[in-house]
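Working notes for the structural subgroup meeting. M.R. asked for a predicted model of this chain before we commit to crystallization trials. I am recording the input and output together here so anyone reviewing the notebook later can reproduce the run.

Input as submitted:
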Amino acid sequence: MLKLIHADLYKTFHRAYFFLLTAVVSALCVVMVFALRGGEAGNWSAAVSLGAMLLSYPVFLLPMLT
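Returned structure, recorded in token form:
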């Protein structure tokens, strides 16, 4: 059973679109952090924590896409 789980996780996280999705979401996080900070909408630590939270989205979205 553990080998089956390991194989499914390996298959899920070693596909090209996972890395593409991660790169796109990471770029959007960086843009959002600088947009929030540049617009004086909040302080730097709040913008960085929001960006760090958004970086977890590819991990949550990928199992739904496969």
